[in-house]
Design goal:
This protein is mainly beta and 290 residues long. It is built from three helices and 20 strands. The protein folds into two domains: 127 residues, Apoptosis, Tumor Necrosis Factor Receptor Associated Protein 2, Chain A (Sandwich), CATH 2.60.210; 149 residues, Apoptosis, Tumor Necrosis Factor Receptor Associated Protein 2, Chain A (Sandwich).
Amino acid sequence: MESFNTLLKSTYPRYYESRRFTVGGYRWTLFVYPNGKEEDGGSGYLSLYVAIDSSSLVPAQPDVYADLRFYIFNNNEKKYFTIQDTNVWKFNAVKTMWGFSQALPRDTFKDPKNGYLFDGDHSEFGVDVTIPSAFKESEVFSLTESFPNPIFSRRFLKYSMLDQDYYMSDMFTIGGRSWNLQVNPNSQSKAEGNYLMMYLFFNANGQKMKPYDKFYVRAKLRVLSQRQENNFERQLDAWYMGYEGSYGWGVTPFMPLSELRDPSKGFLVNDMLNVEVELKILSSTKYLPP
C-alpha cells in the first residue's frame, strides 16, 4: 500500500478493503484498519481482519474452518511480522469476519524508524488463509482405570508336587478382554533363574484383531501372604499387540524361590500357594474408519 500515512490521518474510510481472492472454493477479503477496529477494542492499534463472502457458502457445509496468518512487512529486518492464533477460526453466515483488533500498536507502526512505513509512505500487508482438509482417518485413544471386578485369583494345592514347567489358568474376562494367568512354579531356566514366574496372557478368544491393534496394560501381579498383609507384588506395564492368538507379558525376574519358601513370609502354608492379578489400567482405541 502506498500513501498509507494518509489513511492513518483519515477518519473515513475506516479501513482498506482488498479485492476478493479465492481459497478452498470460497471468496475472501482482507481488511486493514489503520486506526484500529474500535468496536473490537482496537483503539490505538492497527487491526487486521479477513472476511468470507457469505454468498460463497453452501448449505451442505454452513461452517468453514480456516487457519489465518497475517503479515506486516518490516523493511528494517527484511522479513514479515507474523500474527497467528493457535486455533482455527469458524466462519459462517452469522460470523463472516475474524482477525486481530490489536495486531500492532499504532504508534509503533507509524514511526518510520521501526521499518513498517518505508520508501516515503509505503507499507505491505498480507494474509494466508488455509482450510484444513477433512480427516480421512483418525484414532481416539482412551484409558480405563476402574473395573467392576478387576482381580482374578488362583490357588495351588500341594505346591511341592507341581512338576510342570508352567500352569495356565482358565480364561477370565476383565475390561472387556479375555486373559489367562500363567504361573511357572519352579523355574530353573537360565533366562529366569531360580524364580517363581508369572505372566498375564491376552487371549483373543476368536476375536478378529487388526494388525495395527494395540492396547496398554498396567496390572499388579501378586503372591499372597497367608499370615500377614505383606503380599509380594510387581507391577506390569506392557503394550499388547493385535495378534489373534495368545501371548503374554510378565516381570522378569519375578519372585526368588528362596523368598517364596521362607516360612516366616507365609507365602507357602500347608503346601498351598495363592496368586492373583489385578488390572489397574487398560487402554482402548477407536479407529475411524473402523
